[in-house]
Design brief:
CATH superfamily of the largest domain: Medium-chain alcohol dehydrogenases, catalytic domain
Strand content: 25-35%
Helix content: 25-40%
Structural class: alpha/beta
Radius of gyration: 20 Å
CATH class of the largest domain: Alpha Beta
Largest sheet: 7 strands, mixed
Distance between the termini: 11 Å
């Protein structure tokens, strides 16, 4: 089989279309013939060597995929789940790396059957993005109808998922994006679109909600974390799920910029948080891939909302798997609206 391999840490051109050994499943694993792969900003950081627990090169990146089960190896901790999966099942799966490939072995607990009406493209666009937003909003954040949430990078993959889930649950949304994406935000139903090139999100939020809002959902980092924190009122939650500010448009780490953003990241001390009734929450879905009992019901609810039309991934662009480097460049240049996929 073939796979996209990171030969060394660096810009997008370090991704090479290479021969790779066919996967041999261990007990409790399923072999999946990959149909589509979802690209996440974490993949770009992994390629640069700065994502948590990134393997040493050479390695195959990627955190989510969809495809068809070809083989199931019985036994292992997920034996009961393994017994329910069978060859021919259409699934979405979470992988901790190894998704940019034609075939992959994953734990059966990390593979989820998809509805018959769901395309492989939509299935590959859902797990990381929608679970990140759903887990943040309703599991960790306990948001309720009428609560207000600031979503940074609202036109990206996680941002679109967050906006749709917020709309489905009756939340009031503030969303940031560049000037060319403002109409897209309005069409998605963002109540208060914010052009970050012209407006300060904190000033906009505080003008509309002087007492502060219930959640800020931020993957930018640095000064953005500080501004998001200042948007919160009593019982507010700051959700941190990434740090995109350290990467430039060429797909390289800008160390001077990264250092500046780290310096501008607020230091959260327990007593001020106590006095303000504010929570700071970190969310890393990749670290929860083994928590099937937590994620499976959340994903089932997302699939239910997909069936009712409340949520639907926005596929900005799809590339052949062999053109993963071009797909990464496309995202670095901030050209994408919604999700970018790789197709086998």
């Amino acid at each position: 089989m073939r796979a996209m391999v990171v030969q060394r840490y660096g810009p997008p051109d370090v991704l090479k279309w290479s021969e790779a050994p066919d996967p041999t499943p261990k007990p409790g694993q399923a072999v999946i013939r990959v149909k589509a792969v979802g690209i996440n900003f974490a993949d770009l950081l992994a390629r640069l060597g700065v994502y948590t627990n990134t393997p040493k090169p050479p390695f195959v990146p990627g955190l989510e995929l969809s495809g068809v089960v070809e083989e199931v190896a019985p036994g292992g901790e997920g034996q009961s789940v393994a017994a329910s999966l069978k060859p021919g099942d259409r699934v979405a799966a979470l992988t901790m790396f190894r998704a940019y490939t034609e075939r992959v072995a994953v734990s059966v607990e990390q593979a989820f059957r998809i509805p018959d009406a769901m395309s492989f493209e939509d299935a590959a666009a859902i797990p990381v993005n929608y679970l990140t937003a759903y887990h943040s909003f309703f599991e960790m954040g306990n948001l309720r109808a009428g609560d207000r949430v600031l979503i940074t990078s609202a036109a990206g993959g996680v941002g679109v998922a967050a906006v749709q889930l917020a709309r489905a649950r009756g939340l009031v949304t503030f969303g940031t994006a560049g000037p060319s994406k403002q109409e897209f935000l309005r069409k998605m139903g963002v109540a208060h679109p914010i052009d970050y090139s012209r407006e300060n999100a904190r000033e906009v939020v505080r003008r509309i909600a002087p007492e502060g809002i219930e959640m800020a959902f931020d993957a930018v980092g640095g000064r953005s974390f500080a501004d998001s924190y200042r948007c919160l009122g009593p019982m507010g939650r700051l959700v941190v799920y990434g740090f995109s500010a350290a990467v430039d448009a060429r797909g390289r780490i800008n160390y001077l910029r990264a250092a500046k953003e780290m310096w501008q990241t607020p230091r959260f001390r327990p007593l001020p948080l106590l006095e303000k009734n504010i929570a700071v929450i970190g969310v890393h879905i990749g670290r929860l891939a083994h928590k099937a009992r937590v994620l499976a019901p959340q994903l089932a609810d997302i699939f239910r909302m997909y069936g009712t039309g409340e949520v639907k991934p926005v596929i900005g662009k799809s590339f052949p798997l062999s053109e993963a480097a071009a797909a990464h460049t496309y995202i670095h240049n901030r050209q994408n609206l919604g999700k970018v996929l790789l197709l086998t």
